[in-house]
Sequence to fold (490 residues):
Amino acid sequence: MNLGTMLRQSAAANPQKPAVICGGEILSYEALDRSSDALARWLFHEGLAAGDRVAIHWCNSVELVTLYFACFKAGMIAVPMNNRLKPPEIAYVLQHSGAKLCFSQPQLAPLSEQVRAECPELRRVDCALPALDAPSLASVALPEVSADCVAAVLYTSGTTARPKGVMHTHISLRGGSELMISLGIDGTHVLLAGTQLLHISALGCSLLPAIRKGATMVLMHAFDAAQSLDLVERWRVTHLLMLPAMLRFVVEEQARLPRDVRSLGGCIAGGDTVPVTLQERFHALFGVPVQEVYGLTESVPITCIRAGEPRAGSVGRTLDDVDARVAGLAGGLVGEGEIGELQVQSPANCVGYWNDPEATAAAFDEGWMRTGDLMRRDRDGFFWFAGRAKQIIVRGGSNISPQEVEEALYHHPAVLEAGVIGMPDPVLGERVVAFVALREGLTVGEEELCELVRSRIADYKAPERVVFLPALPKGLTGKVQRRDLRALAF
Fold:
């Protein structure tokens, strides 16, 4: 089944039910199905063909959802662009993807227009959805779309020199949505995603599972902690999906001004590690546990903590239909409790990187996808995140996970954000440097924080320096950018 057929089936079963709610607009399943059909026909009417790339530069909205499904139904490839990109980054995505058409929200259109001349394959930039009631569109036939066709190219946040375009097919996106459904998502649920739909977490873990099961998806144009809680109260949201950085602000807001959140039955967090202290605060304020889901743009979800099996600090066990192994960086598999790179086989695995055969070849080993993330697996099959292969700190021959040090720092009540990196050291190879942002009105000294860390983990893992900042630099998905921290350490 392709993703367009998935929507058609849910629309037939739930025609008048709200499919998407955003900014006061309510789009029913029937209306979404009808408008995406018409837009798919319009794309062909304008001369595009199956397999062409359609760039989408739009914040969360009913228009964005319609654009996605129009591309899916037309057999074209959706290329969402983050609304925080600057012109050179926009130019790169448009050039690299070879997009023929770009839909750009009116407020963002000047950025796309600014680089249009640099993109020879780009025919034009449209800043509104076209009128879809033209009689000529009715005669345009839609193709049979094979489920193994590429449905979307999602560009990574650029932790490497250049973002890579992750290719997902209808099969892999459907596979990820089925894995999320296995966690208990059903048609009675109302889901609220804090992230933008350009991100795999909102698209693959919220929108597509919701559409598959006939649930309702609540979106925000942009994340706002207070608005999140207001929407929970107004629409009786049953499930939240947040990045850890967002979850922290939601917790702070609920503590400041409590809302009626009794409708909540669960909270899924992923995209980065979720500190145990944050999970504990959320549970105390909202009465439901945080269900941590681990995955990446190339494959999500991979592991999760299921109800009834809490294991503080672990990212859980693999989901059904997902196989995982831990491989040593020098080759071969490692034993129980040893750290190595996580590699996975999953129905949600991407099929590679757009226009980058070398990166695609490097990402797969005989069907196993290399995640680049370091993990250890305990005797019960639970996985424990130990950092990313390129982020591990080697101090005097000992490996130190930045996340482990950050977790210790979060135990101080004054610490709002923490980021840890390794800096070159002529004697030890690397030394540990921590960057900390404090909660408003609270203070703590460098030595007190270092003592706290030493009280919780081995002394050699403690920071040798703590740098205090008003806020930590973050990437497009809300993750702390360690490469930017390095520039601040001097």
About this structure: The chain has a mean pLDDT of 91. Residues 194 and 242 are 5 Å apart (CA to CA).
